[in-house]
Design brief:
single chain; 120 residues; alpha+beta; Nucleotidyltransferase, domain 5; four-stranded mixed sheet; 4 strands; 46% helix
């Protein structure tokens, strides 16, 4: 494993360990950001299952977006995952940025999820 990958994995573990302390059993809104798309999941770590998920590859988002790799697509994914989480009965989550900086697409997804009704 190269040095940059090790640093990223270490940062990701540090973020997740802090979330376990402050989470108090709340589900986790986890994101993954690739160069072409963005993905979000609401995960219940106690039960070990995914409660809601959305990505820029979803059919309803793909039709309206120019690309899956911009802030507008990330905000739309945030709103969609919030809508699906509310349908699953989840209102309060912990935001897991997954080692990414809270900037750009990650921030746009978080703001979209807040607009959609998730509280974190």
């Amino acid at each position: 494993m190269n040095r940059q990958k090790k640093i990223g994995v270490r940062r990701q573990k540090r973020v997740r360990s802090k979330l376990r302390v402050v989470g108090n059993g709340r589900p986790r809104l986890s994101i993954f950001r690739s160069s072409k798309n963005i993905y979000a999941q609401v995960i219940d770590d106690v039960a070990g299952r995914t409660l809601a998920a959305a990505s820029s590859l979803d059919k309803e988002l793909r039709e309206g977006a120019k690309t899956g790799a911009d802030c507008a697509a990330a905000a739309a994914v945030g709103k969609l995952v919030a809508q699906r989480a509310k349908a699953a009965g989840v209102a309060h989550v912990v935001f897991d940025r997954g080692g990414y900086l809270f900037h750009g697409r990650v921030k746009a997804l978080a703001d979209g999820a807040r607009e959609g009704g998730l509280d974190f």
